[in-house]
Known about the structure:
alpha/beta, 7-stranded mixed beta sheet, 3-stranded mixed beta sheet, single chain, Class_I_gatase-like, 29% helix, Rossmann fold, DJ-1/PfpI
Amino acid sequence: xxxxxxxxxxxxxxxxxxxxxxxxxxxxxxQGAGAKTEIVSLHPGEIQARQFxxxxxxxxxxxxxxADTSVEDYxxxxxxxxxxxxxxxxxxxxxxxxxxxxxxxxxxxASICHGPWTLAEADAVRGRRLTSWPSIRTDLRNAGAEVVxxxxxxxxxxxxxxxxPADLPASCAAVVxxxxxxxxxxxx
Length: 188
């Protein structure tokens, strides 16, 4: 097991309705590479996970409230999907400010499936190249993004996006690689 992310703190912005596999697998990859992860959410207690958006898939304990968190608390941000999960932060002022601040900071951000919806609401996709679940691609284009449909993972500067749970192996590898580059910048 490698430790290229040792000492890195990663915030995972997730709410009720998060697609379980889209939180579990990237978090496992990050922790396997040595990162410490925290679930940041809108309410205390636990969030309800889903499988295929329809089936209950257990819960995750919330580590911190987004209202009590700032970009300075983390080295990177993960935005998992699920249809319901990204919709809730879009309606929360603190969550939107957190995402805007993260994108403005230049720190790495990764998002999968429906997760980029949150980025669109934060006006953080304009001029960016990314991918997502097919049903939100029009929303992303309307928000000014260049949407790529035929790649598992798209990296645009600080932003790493992927299309769906089927892309998780490639996505997790790219997220660890990109977060490691930001954590330990390569010499020129």
